[in-house]
């Protein structure tokens, strides 16, 4: 019998929808009943994670803990969060419930280490400034013996602005798409071979990014891991 998945969502809502869709799309199924039971708490009122880190804003931990307890009480067997920056509080969150959390940061690093080690040092992280400052992906990659490229300061500003517009619902009309494409073209010329979407809003822009780089989607990798764990295949 498959395990019930809990999604601690709302950070942001489009990213939560994206994870849900990718779980469904990556589940082997011939009928409705073959799919996983998924409980989603989409709470967009969780305080902003970037502001909490970059501007000493309100901590999102109490609201995230309440969501985790709700998911556990509703019958989830494990919890995942479609927000990379929120993984800063992952260890603290685990203390609030008796079911496991499975993280997307370590999962993405482990996948690239196992399947694309030849790209070491040539993968560019596309994430929020807060995620970069915290070193979440740098630490995860280092634990796998891999180096990771980071955006320049001006490139990081472009990414942060693009993420804000995704949260406002702007995808194909995102005003920073041209800047991202130009940035990635420069990166490719400088030896970058791939990008890793380390912010859950970034994969939503992937269909509109035409740079000649391999694209790794941490949300998609998380979805595949969720399916494997829920079906007892991992």
From TrEMBL:
Pfam family, one: Asp_Glu_race
Family (UniProt): Belongs to the aspartate/glutamate racemases family.
Keywords from the named record: Isomerase
MF terms (GO), sorted A to Z: isomerase activity
Official protein name in the record: Amino acid racemase
EC number per UniProt: 5.1.1.-
PANTHER family named in the record: ASPARTATE-GLUTAMATE RACEMASE FAMILY (PTHR21198:SF7), GLUTAMATE RACEMASE (PTHR21198)
NCBIfam families registered for this protein in UniProt: asp_race
Source organism: Anaeroselena agilis
């Amino acid at each position: 019998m498959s395990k019930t998945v809990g999604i601690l969502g709302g950070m942001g809502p489009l990213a939560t929808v994206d994870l849900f869709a990718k779980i469904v799309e990556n589940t082997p199924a011939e009928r409705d009943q073959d799919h996983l039971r998924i409980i989603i708490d989409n709470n967009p009122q969780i305080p902003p994670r970037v502001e909490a880190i970059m501007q000493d804003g309100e901590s999102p931990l109490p609201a995230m803990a309440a969501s985790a307890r709700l998911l556990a009480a509703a019958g989830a067997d494990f919890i995942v969060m479609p927000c990379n920056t929120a993984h800063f509080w992952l260890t603290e969150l685990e203390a609030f419930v008796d079911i496991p959390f499975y993280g997307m940061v370590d999962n993405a690093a482990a996948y690239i280490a196992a399947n694309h080690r030849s790209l070491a040092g040539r993968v560019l992280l596309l994430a929020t400034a807060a995620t970069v400052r915290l070193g979440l992906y740098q630490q995860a990659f280092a634990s796998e013996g891999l180096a990771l490229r980071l955006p320049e300061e001006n490139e990081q500003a472009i990414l942060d602005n693009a993420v804000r517009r995704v949260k406002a619902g702007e995808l194909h009309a995102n005003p920073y798409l041209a800047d991202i494409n130009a940035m990635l073209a420069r990166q490719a010329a400088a030896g970058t071979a791939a990008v890793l979407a380390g912010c859950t809003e970034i994969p939503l822009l992937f269909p509109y990014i035409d740079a000649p780089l391999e694209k790794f989607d941490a949300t998609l990798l998380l979805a595949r891991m969720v399916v494997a764990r829920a079906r007892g295949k991992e």
